[in-house]
Amino acid sequence: FAKSVLSQTTDSTARIKLIWQRSYQRNPTSDELAGAQSFLQASQSELETSELVWQSLCQAVLISNEFRYID
Question: Which residues contact 61 (CB under 8 A, 6 or more apart)?
Fold first, then answer.
């Protein structure tokens, strides 16, 4: 999932939007976008590569309640 997102664009905002569109079939809210950007920044210092950072965000989205349960 993350490799596909990384190959689509280099813009981080566009990548986040793509993750949301593929996972939830919608764009992220402004709060979700800011939260994802904060998550990426915080993960940069802990993970070795940019690819691992994006993989971590994708995993977080895929284990979210919104992804797992249908309203």
Answer: 19, 20, 23, 67
pLDDT tens-digit profile, the chain (71 residues): 999 999 999 999 999 999 999 999 999 999 999 999 999 999 998 998 999 999 999 999 999 988 877 66
Q: Tell me the pTM.
A: 0.90
Q: Which two tokens stand for residue 57?
A: 């965000």
Token pair for 17: 């939007």
